[in-house]
Amino acid sequence: MTVDLARRLLNTEAVAARDIEVALLEHTLAARHFLVALSDRVAHLEDLIESECARSPIPFVKSVQPVDQLVQRLPTGMCRRLLGVPVREDVRTGTIDVAVADPFDRHAAREFERALDSPVRLVRGSLAEVAGAASDADDRRRRTSGTPAFGTEVRRPSVVPLTNIADAAAGGPDTEPPQTQDYGARGSVVPPIAAPRIPYISGPDSEPVIELTRNKAAPSIQAPGVEAELLALESAEAATDVAVGVAKVMLSVASRCLVFTVHQADYRARASAPPVEPRVLGGLVVSSSEPNVLNTALQTGYYLGPLPRTVPHHGLRQFAEFDDGEVAVGVVYVSGRPTLTFLAGGFDNAFNATRRADTIATVAGRSLERILRNKKQG
């Protein structure tokens, strides 16, 4: 979901909660991509997006050029709606690279896989490049098809434009949306996409349709002793201590956690909480050659969802006795490369669990970088 990027932008405190709320509303009700809607309201948005999206391990491409043969396999309007375009097909494996502006949107990957009927690998492009390519792709697709995707367009009644919510809420005039500008091919500015008119109800007793506020009480999710455990994690003297510390701190929001070292062919268990015998723990290895949640986390930066009942996950289920609830997978990076990944389950609040996982990954990454640096310096 694009909500993850919305939360990241909100936490930067550079984007107002009201602007994000309105953009999410337009994204939900009008099928207009969140980033395109937000770009109408926030100046210099692309710099903010690039700063946040750079945290994703997904490869970055400078130029986004849609492949016409692949675009023809998509429903009309899909590229613009998901802000993504197919840019390459690996003829050997059949995997299709899709350039997206939001690398945290796992929903987009699933949609493109379903529409293209092929495995999809996401790559990241700038907002301007992807938006321009998506508009070009959909325009070419529309010229070859008379039926738009996701239903035929119908005439909407004249209502208050979403772009003028501030005037509407204040009882001001119902002004017309700003005139669009000719941006040429693909410049540094996001190409304009016509804003659909949707109703917005405002009154003394009304509440926002989508409530999105910054949580000022971050310490509320801190369990006693968590600060000390995070400090111990950051000051760990060996890589093994970091793995153990990751599992231990994650227990503050989850009932069990497994930590793996990342290798080219597999993931090898190195720590767990509650702890188990090292001999038993060392026997847990997950192959990276088959689809699994650890692979997904490395591709997208994290995973949150059920643990599939497929063969690659049998060992995880038997070892940690994960139930059918959600699991969260975090990734620890050292110098931009994935080094550890950890899987946690048995939590009551997914938002708290992912926030804690993000914190742990950041602290553990700093700790491992320090250990590696000290080792090189002798």
Detailed description of the structure:
A six-stranded antiparallel beta sheet has the order 6-5-4-9-8-7, sandwiched between helices. Strands 1-2-3 form a three-stranded mixed beta sheet. It folds into two domains: 214 residues, GMP Synthetase, Chain A, domain 3 (2-Layer Sandwich); 158 residues, GAF domain (Beta-Lactamase). It contains 15 helices and nine strands. It has 378 residues and is of the alpha+beta class. Strand 4 and strand 5 form a beta hairpin.
Give structural attributes.
single chain; three-stranded mixed sheet; six-stranded antiparallel sheet; Beta-Lactamase; 378 residues; globular; 9 strands
Quick structural overview:
This protein is 39% helix and 15% strand.
* Largest pleated sheet: 6 strands, antiparallel
Got a strand count? 9
Top-tier CATH class of the largest domain = Alpha Beta
End-to-end CA span: 45 Å
Number of helices: 15
What's the CATH H-level superfamily name of the largest domain?
Type II secretion system, protein E, N-terminal domain
Which CATH architecture of the largest domain is right? 2-Layer Sandwich
**Oligomeric description of these chains:** single chain
Low-confidence stretches: 146-223
Average pLDDT works out at: 75
Instruction: Tell the overall outline.
Output: globular
CATH fold name of the largest domain: GMP Synthetase, Chain A, domain 3
Describe the strand arrangement of the main beta sheet, using strand numbers: 6-5-4-9-8-7
Rg value: 23 Å
- What is the ordering of alpha helices and beta strands? HHHHHHEEHEHHHHEEHEHEHEEH
The fraction of residues in strands falls at 5-15%
